[in-house]
Design a protein that fits this description.
With 193 residues, this protein is α+β, with helices and mostly antiparallel strands. It is 16% helix and 35% strand. The protein has four helices and ten strands. The strands form three sheets. A five-stranded antiparallel sheet has the order 1-3-8-5-6, with helices on one face. The chain starts with 9 loop residues before the first strand and ends with a strand.
Length: 193
């Protein structure tokens, strides 16, 4: 898991929802509700990244460049909490395109996109906070709070995976939750090679 804090995953504050960002110092001192909570594998009730409202984004930088294959989202199991409405529901993972080879692949993919990728690129070209950097959508998915397994894994789009693009930074956008006034992201993991 390249996003895991102890594996070198860090939060990029410049591409993360500012109303929720807390410094790494507060995280080291045990602050709760910090964005860094989403990069740890502790699933205790209330130990989540809390976002006011239903929207937000977290940018994660990896220690190494990664060919992303899957994203994992985890929420506290339904049987252990009554706060299911705060779980994220609709999400979109973006990869920041960097490097000459990746930019060539990016432009080729944008020009030949079909299906879901074309639909995503037609709707938007980057996450809400992008700082003018080029991004490619990796996967749009729904987290199902009512599923039997609370740890859910989603593969990136085949068309993106087939290019062999690699990433040092990804952005996870939370586009909606299950009806709550706030959103709690307990855990996000990024897998690949």
């Amino acid at each position: 898991d390249y996003a895991l804090w102890r594996n070198g995953g860090i939060v990029l504050s410049s591409l993360t929802s500012s109303h929720t960002y807390e410094s790494w110092v507060s995280r080291l001192l045990g602050g709760t509700g910090s964005v860094y909570t989403a990069l740890e594998d502790d699933l205790q009730e209330g130990s989540c990244w809390r976002l006011p409202g239903r929207l937000g984004q977290i940018a994660i930088a990896f220690r190494d460049i990664v060919r992303v294959t899957h994203i994992m989202v985890d929420h506290i199991p339904v049987g252990l909490t009554n706060a299911t409405e705060s779980a994220p529901r609709k999400l979109l993972l973006w990869g920041m395109v960097d490097g000459k080879d990746n930019l060539v692949k990016y432009h080729s993919l944008r020009n030949s996109a079909t299906g879901t990728l074309r639909e995503l690129l037609t709707a938007r070209t980057a996450p809400g906070l992008s700082r003018g950097m080029p991004f490619i959508p990796l996967v749009r998915f729904d987290y199902n709070i009512h599923a039997t397994n609370h740890t859910q894994l989603f593969p990136i789009l085949d068309s993106v995976a087939a290019t062999g693009m690699d990433f040092g930074i990804v952005v996870l956008e939370i586009l909606d939750n299950w009806g709550g006034e706030l959103t709690c992201l307990y855990r996000v993991g990024i897998y690949g090679e």
